[in-house]
């Protein structure tokens, strides 16, 4: 099955909120939460998608006809593409009970690793989610990124201990999850972290640490001060704060300031290999894609993941070929119109 067939198949099993649209642009689900929609007006997810579409690439086929190399090295591991699958949580609530978080991650981590990329796994109130996610990552030789919510210190350390034991090549925190309702009002308090608190968490991790949820130069600087080796330019798909800009709108400024100091990822509305190329041209080292992977798993399990990764890779390779570049390090602002 191809990606369109898999997406079509997922429609009958994915539940009432996600419509498994031909193009996942945030419009049909809008502000329908639970579900994949965005908070408040529901427009931030739509802005994320639209911002990538406004960028155009420069075609240039007068170039050496070298073999295209899409490989990407991160923290000592080499991946087939500069693409990672993002963390997903509460799948049975947001999509359907065909999967729960544990069965979803079982498929997710393994299929991504076999496809030459890696999955970030989600987190939740049920402690079994992190236990099982880290188990699956360990079984896949550490090819996965356990992603921890900004819980209170004791809970963070308990989950970090599991992450450390998984031999994961990297560990992450989606610090913008402070805006999720189930973290607010918890005793002891969860949510925002000071630089000092974040540093203590990062220092406890035994693998390179990625902070997800950066939307400004100031935020990036604080994450770097705390010891982050990677940052993700992300507004959590618009699910935690209405009225924020698209990730593509802030990526360039952040990358201009910190490229080379820290690995820079970006997510939000990236759907194709063409979008991946545009993100790299704006300064990202790699991208994270989430919602389409859910459709792929609900439609065809591991086969769905493998089909989508293959399509992304082929699209990226074709764009590189048609814009005169042969390796990721050659991609820059000169390859796009803004």
From TrEMBL:
Binding-site list for glyoxylate: 239
Key word Flavoprotein present: yes
Catalytic activity: (S)-lactate + O2 = pyruvate + H2O2
Cofactor: FMN
Pfam families linked: FMN_dh
Binding residue positions for FMN: 212, 234, 236, 267-271
Single GO molecular function: oxidoreductase activity
Ribonucleoprotein keyword on record: no
Domain FMN hydroxy acid dehydrogenase: 1-338
Active site: 236 (proton acceptor)
Record-linked InterPro entries: Aldolase_TIM (IPR013785), Alpha-hydoxy_acid_DH_FMN (IPR012133), FMN-dep_DH (IPR000262), FMN_HAD (IPR037396)
Keywords noted in UniProt: Flavoprotein, FMN, Oxidoreductase
Family: Belongs to the FMN-dependent alpha-hydroxy acid dehydrogenase family.
Protein name per UniProt: L-lactate oxidase
Biological source species: Faecalibacillus faecis
Lineage: Bacteria, Bacillati, Bacillota, Erysipelotrichia, Erysipelotrichales
């Amino acid at each position: 099955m191809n990606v369109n067939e898999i997406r079509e198949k997922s429609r009958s099993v994915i539940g009432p909120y996600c419509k498994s649209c031909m193009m996942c642009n945030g419009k049909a689900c809008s502000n329908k939460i639970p579900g994949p929609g965005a908070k408040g007006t529901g427009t931030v997810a739509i802005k994320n998608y639209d911002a990538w579409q406004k960028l155009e690439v420069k075609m240039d086929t007068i170039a050496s006809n070298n073999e295209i190399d899409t490989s990407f090295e991160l923290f000592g591991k080499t991946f087939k593409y500069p693409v990672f699958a993002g963390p997903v949580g509460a799948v049975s609530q947001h999509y359907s009970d065909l999967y729960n978080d544990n069965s979803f991650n079982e498929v997710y981590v393994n299929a991504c690793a076999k496809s030459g990329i890696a999955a970030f796994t989600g987190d939740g109130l049920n402690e079994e989610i992190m236990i099982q996610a880290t188990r699956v990552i360990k079984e896949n030789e550490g090819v996965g990124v356990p992603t921890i919510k900004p819980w209170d210190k004791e809970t963070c350390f308990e989950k970090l201990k599991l992450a450390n034991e998984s031999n994961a090549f990297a560990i992450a925190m989606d610090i913008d999850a402070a805006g999720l309702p189930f973290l607010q009002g918890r005793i002891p308090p969860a949510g925002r972290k000071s630089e000092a608190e974040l540093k203590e968490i990062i220092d406890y991790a035994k693998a390179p640490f990625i902070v997800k949820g950066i939307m400004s130069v100031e935020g990036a600087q604080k994450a770097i001060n705390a010891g982050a080796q990677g940052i993700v330019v992300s507004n959590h798909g618009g699910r935690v704060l209405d009225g924020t800009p698209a990730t593509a709108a802030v990526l360039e400024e952040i990358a201009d300031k910190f490229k080379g100091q820290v690995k820079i990822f970006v997510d939000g509305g990236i759907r194709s290999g063409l979008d991946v190329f545009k993100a790299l041209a704006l300064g990202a080292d790699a991208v994270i894609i989430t919602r389409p992977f859910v459709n792929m798993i609900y439609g065809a399990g591991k086969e769905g993941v493998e089909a989508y990764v293959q399509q992304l890779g082929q699209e990226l390779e074709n764009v590189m070929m048609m814009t005169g570049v042969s390796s990721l390090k050659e991609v820059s602002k000169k390859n796009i119109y803004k």
